[in-house]
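Team,

Forwarding the record for the chain on the shared tracking sheet. I've put the sequence and predicted structure together so nobody has to dig through attachments.
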Amino acid sequence: MPFRNRPMRDIAVACIFLLVCVLLVLAALWAYYSFIHTPPYVDPERYPVRGIDISSHNGDVDLQKAADSGIDFVFIKASEGGDFKDRNFRVNYDKATKAGLKKGVYHFFRFDRDGVEQALNLMRTVGGRRPELGFVIDVEKTGNPDSIPPEVINRRLVEMVDYLNLLGHRVMFYTNREGYYDYLAETFPGQPLWICGFSENPIHAEWTFWQFNHRGRVDGIKGDVDMNAFCGSREEWESYLQGSLWPYSDRHSQ
């Protein structure tokens, strides 16, 4: 009798072991997800200037309400690759202007498209608009093919930046820690950065804007929205804005 019951006991032990393993995996995934998505504390005295970034993914937004709630600036998606244009770019840009928000415009960089082609797509999308925070090139592995050699990606980035610089446009990069060290650190040292990270010092380099939360809540926007901070005081913000306007100032064009 004990011999015949042994297989049942073995099955029970195996089931318990499997259940424990599953629970441990789930706990690890929960801890990882919570760590990655839990925003750090961002001292409002040290980082008083706050902003958001939006695209058509955020739907119909009320940027006047966002501005009234204390938001100072917004980065707006314009384009991607060689031909994609964000369908809400124009309306979002007009809303931000009307609300008095300082604006930046960003382009999602595709590893598999020519750099000049991407610059032309961005310029066609933006038209004659002159965002106070300039243009941002979003460089990240997520959403890009992993078959493109790094040297090709680097060359295409240089082509896009050079083309925009020749037109007199201020260029900033958006990326995360991995993207910075893989694609930007050596080729673009000192280039203005908008860094994504969940710690106060995500990279060993200076940055200008910090995206610290993917699940923020802001008046006028339904659902989650990315939260950002400017690296500096209100006084430094005003100085930064004066400097960022140089490509479009009347003095420069004279």
